[in-house]
Target: Fork-head domain-containing protein
Amino acid sequence: MAYRPEHSTDRWGESERETRGGGLNSREQPRACNLSISPGKRLETRQHAHTLAVNASLSLSLSLSAPLALSPSPLRDSCLLIFRDPPNGPASLCLPCQPNGVCQVPVSVAMMTPQVITPQQMQQILQHQVLSPQQLQLLLQQQQALMLQQQQLQEFYKKQQEQLHLQLIQQQHGSKQQSKEVSAQQLAFQQQLLQVQQLQQQHLLSLQRQGLLSIQPNQTLPLHSLTQGMIPAELQQLWKEVTNSHVKEENSATNNGHRGLDLSSPSPVPPKNHNQHGSTNGQYISHSLKREGSTLDDHSPHSHPLYGHGVCKWPGCEAVFEDFQSFLKHLNNEHALDDRSTAQCRVQMQVVQQLELQLAKDKERLQAMMTHLHVKSTEPKPAPQPLNLVSNVTLSKTAPEASPPLSLPQTPTTPTAPLTPLSQTHSVITPTSLHSVGPMRRRYSDKYNMPISPDIVQNKEFYMNAEVRPPFTYASLIRQAILESPERQLTLNEIYNWFTRMFAYFRRNAATWKNAVRHNLSLHKCFVRVENVKGAVWTVDELEFQKRRPQKISGSPALVKNIHTTLGYGPALSAAFQASMAENNIPLYTTASIGSPTLNSLASAIREEMNGAMDHGNSNGSDSSPGRSPLPAMHHISVKEEPLDPEEHEGPLSLVTTANHSPDFDHNRDYEDDHVHEDML
DNA sequence: GACGTCCTAAACAGTT
DNA sequence: GAACTGTTTAGGACGT
Model:
């Protein structure tokens, strides 16, 4: 009775203040986004580019999101990071990434940057440079590492050459065109190598400028040792495939695709600071790399993007390991640089490219939608800031997967909830952003019949950590909780747990929202109580859920279409994949517009998918697992307070009979008792 | 203004 | 008896 709108408003305002003050503008800004990696390509990711960056782990582009644990790989020390703070400020180097850590630069990048220092050069350095012991040690490490690296590359090249030789023998009868292609490929490869050499020279030049290396201008750099005779077409093609797309991206994105190090301004930071975290850049580095799921942090050395929950996440591997070390061993042994891994990388690259393509399309579509909606909305509401969480999700994918326990202090500044300022992310506003604004929240999920799952998925980290009320109705949330469960049924307590697990907001005021949950469960026909031996679980009658509201969007075919195309979600897919591949015709359990015959059939499909198995389950009188039957036990379904004896009726009325009701009839019955029950009684 | 929906609050009954 | 679960009612806010 004592509903106080001002109270509600205050709470919202508070949440938004918390969100914006502590989250969006927080110091938890992913400053790592401004990190540049060199040599070769000065590649910078910014906040809005994380989504792509995370997928570009094999590209020449910066791919901090997919660090490869190379320890004790020699590649580790061969990467050179350039840090800028501010982003346009002078560069400072970090060499190597981390003395005892793991390189953040993917193999493809690290391999491009061999810093071969001859003994003569080393001697020169010793003679002419006053270097600290640390620097000397670093250089020695580099030298050793690079020699090892060279050996590896030579072995690799040898293999490739043998393969190529075999291939050439097989293809000797091939046409001239093929040989022409091979020649062209060789040419291209030579160009690539030339670029690499240039990059390496630039790299060394940068070293020189940093005072770490002193080389006479006319001195021949010993870089050719790497590439001596390396013209196998196979390797070339491989290289091309791995690098081409992203080189193109860079070339198109920048006027100079081979800028290499930006040495226009020599770093004012003396080399002695390179490994110190006390400096600004040091903090930057540490912070940045940590935020990218790095294993550099000595306190959390067991995080790796290819390792989660004790399972190797290498595509198709799924090997289980008891500890991180064994995983690393496995990674280095089983997923070393060989043909198989390369092929898998290729596949992954294609997947990534497809996703990127899809993402680009979706972004474009979203932009169009936003533009369209903005044109219509005459009053821009200034106060609430939409939250861009797309990149956050992407980031979170690379972060340790340990979800924050419920007992954690939930502040918007929690590192697991990185927030991106709106000002930088206009182009990627999630659908929620439009609706998480003030009192509109509760209409979000239903008004346009938009599925809430992608939003929840995308903003999961945020909702889990920020005490911001989710812009969904209780009914939508309950439905989501149930549908997310493997068996699509939850007990009340499990629903509670889902709420508290997924939303920090629901970790307080439990009495209020729990009451609301119960109220909604009981009130809405779409929630069906299924009695078990152990108790009762709640399931969702999807059709009923869809009938809850008449759709007013029929007049906007474009919107309908857009909604329709974003309906596809499969529980087996990962969250990010769901978000980006929503329209890939994956079976869904979500809302559909009732008015459209197409969507009606879609809804029928949903119903069949949800209940079709139940037909088989109906004959299964003895449930081997009574507590958690994957099929909602029809014979135990009780619709609200009137349990029916399934023996006396042909089937559960709620799921079958209501499917034939017209929406116009049904959507008004949400609050009313099912008179069918009375008929049947 | 009517209507529908959502939210909050509360009372009540049954079950654990 | 307390806590939990489930149902129902009531009233206000808000959008259509």
